[in-house]
Amino acid sequence: MYLEQKVVELTGWWTLMRFRKDIKDIKNVQEQTLMDILKTGSQTKFGRDHNLKNIANTAEFREKVPLSCYDDYRPYIEAIMNGEKNLLFHEQIDFFGATSGTTSGKSKLFPLNVNKLKINLLFAIATSFAMIRKHIPSFGVIKPIANVRIGVRFPTTETGIEKGSISAKLMPYRRYLCSPSAAYDILTEKEGLYIHAVFTLKEPDVTYIMCLTSSVLLSFLLLIKRQWKQLVRDIRLGQLDPDLNISDSMRKKLEKSLRPDPKRADELTGIFHGNSFINIVPRLWTHCSMVSSLATGTFELQANIVRAQFGQTVPIVTFMHAATEGQYGIVVFDEGITKDGVTRADFVPIPRAAFFEFIPLEDVHREHPRTLLAHQVIPGSDYELVVTNSRGLYRYRTQDVIRIVGFRNTAPVYNVRQRTTDVLNVRVEKVPESVVTEAVVAAAATWNSGCLTNFSATEKINCDKLTDNITGEARYVFFVELDTNTHMTEVEKSQIDAKLYEICDTYRAFRNNGTIQEPEVIQVAPGTFDVIKQTAVNNNSLLYIDQFKWPRILRKPDF
């Protein structure tokens, strides 16, 4: 662990210096990054097909190479899966990264080289760690780390190459983790989270908790809240709950690492006594300085629920904006981990990770939308992010909508909003997911029936089609889950309409003229959204359960 930590520290010192230098001249660094990508890419089949070797500058590239989407790469990817080489990039392809499939219902596959990804990830993470250590010195202390994740098995292509979640692929087991290696062989969420809870609670000196997403973090903390007595019993006796649905051989492996610890069990009982879970993380693990998880965009809701229900004084940190398609940006922590009491979640593009372009939000649905460069974007404006990178993607439309919130030196600072397709629209109002979520969270803050745990929304017409009863009503339908079975009052339900009316100008205008009706709010039983998640995973062998993204705006009948 010591050697690995030192490698990260030294790498971070160098990459942070380069990053700070690059963002002082983003225009020229981006131009050089593009030319480097074109130089190597020109020798691939895609490069020859698009005459990349004869492109001399950024302007010529944007003029001659069209914007692209996944379908433009499908023939190349299918040929790669059949064993052809040097189609999109030179490196050996040893993994196919699968997207979550939330938007389309089916995962997209991207050819990847794992070693190259590990190097790029090391550079990005090391840069962030170097900034964080300035504000949290204890972050560098060699102590146990909790990595809460469910196990995964990777299917293979016909040519024997593994495919699946790249996030899961890049998280190998380490001896300094709280949970034993066998815990990462458990493929079911309920049992996996329980096992991680036992071993993480047993370790009092945890310094750092990792969850892939804030959804996993919320599920982990809720499990501890609901089952702490049984968890403490397991720690006291050194035996796992006999009702836990795992094999005898798995139980035997895990219990080898679970020695009876009555002293820690007594400590935990004292902490849990009184059922108060406010600021539970620093009370359970006094040395814990940080929780890392994806807590932006789709996952922001669960992160806010964690903060509301558990009073997190330990910051929930998102290091990087990335996807199966590539790495995009990192959060800059030079001025601290938090700003105005809230953990920073504003990203700066990694200048050498890709060549970035930005489609103004008002142009995203045009046939040939215009793009701006990194130094041309305007603070306060929303854009779809477009990337060109060494993974063989050229002017690729990510469908990620970002908002520019300022500049750091010459580089834009942005936060993640939603996907371009994630809007509610019964007339032409196009209320974006970020606004919908803001309204629901604000409404939930006024409810007394219970705490919001999840929600999704759709247009009424989509529900009508499923029941063959077309009502013609122009309204939204919200599916809301609370942490209790207490029925919401009509006044509480009406708060979603009230908050949308207050927050969104276009929604207010359509409500005022009567062309949009008050939303219908349907309260679902606790656990409903977990069933939806498990169903989605069961229907998609490539979907990693930790990576599942809740569709806030429903479009598929399956949901």
Overview features:
alpha/beta, 5-stranded antiparallel beta sheet, 18 helices, 22 strands, 559 residues, 38% helix, 3 domains, 19% strand
Q: Which helices and strands occur, and which strands form pairs?
A:
Layout: H1 2-22, H2 26-41, H3 45-49, H4 58-64, H5 70-81, E1 95-98, E2 109-112, H6 114-135, E3 145-148, E4 163-164, H7 166-169, H8 189-202, E5 208-213, H9 214-237, H10 248-255, H11 262-272, H12 280-284, E6 290-294, H13 300-310, E7 316-317, E8 320-323, E9 326-331, E10 338-339, E11 342-343, E12 347-349, E13 355-360, E14 372-373, E15 382-389, E16 393-408, E17 411-419, E18 423-424, E19 431-432, H14 433-444, E20 452-459, H15 460-467, E21 476-482, H16 490-503, H17 505-512, E22 520-524, H18 528-538
Parallel strand pairs: 1-4, 3-5, 5-6, 6-7, 21-22
Antiparallel strand pairs: 1-2, 8-9, 9-12, 10-11, 13-14, 13-15, 15-16, 16-17, 18-19, 20-21
Helix pairs in contact: 1-6, 8-9, 9-11, 9-13, 14-16, 16-17
